[in-house]
Amino acid sequence: MIPQGGQLTADANEEEFEVSLQEGPSLTYRLDWNTNRIAGRIDELEAVKQAVLKILLTERYEHLIYSFDYGTEWTNILGKDRLWVQSELNRVITEALMQDDRVEDVVNFRLSWQGNDAIARFTVVSSFGDFSMSKEVSANV
Length: 141
Description:
CATH topology: Nuclear Transport Factor 2, Chain: A
Shape: globular
InterPro entries: Sheath_initiator
Organism: Paenibacillus terreus
Largest sheet: 3 strands, antiparallel
Radius of gyration: 20 Å
Protein name: DUF2634 domain-containing protein
Number of helices: 2
Number of strands: 5
Structural class: alpha+beta
Order of helices and strands: EEHHEEE
CATH architecture: Roll
């Protein structure tokens, strides 16, 4: 059934249509990575830490359940030349994490090598506080 009786007038006050942008609640289920089970709930900084980890573990465009904005584009750098990985790793991680509204910045990016593996260490600045993270990726020599 189509709703009836509504009217739009040409002199409608535009201020009535302003949208207040507020951050949504961060309360979510806590994932127990050791048992692969949900174990309670977490909020604020702990929820952001878990979200960052999930984003880094999820390949973008691979899972229909997530939007195209979710995840990290690892296929663009995995197995590539060291110089390519070195130049792209910061950008790939930062772009992925900045899709979460609670993440304000990714700073103090440091890259080190162990054999063929690049280890990226960085600080995530969030609306609930800062925390350090690291991600290891493989590259060809």
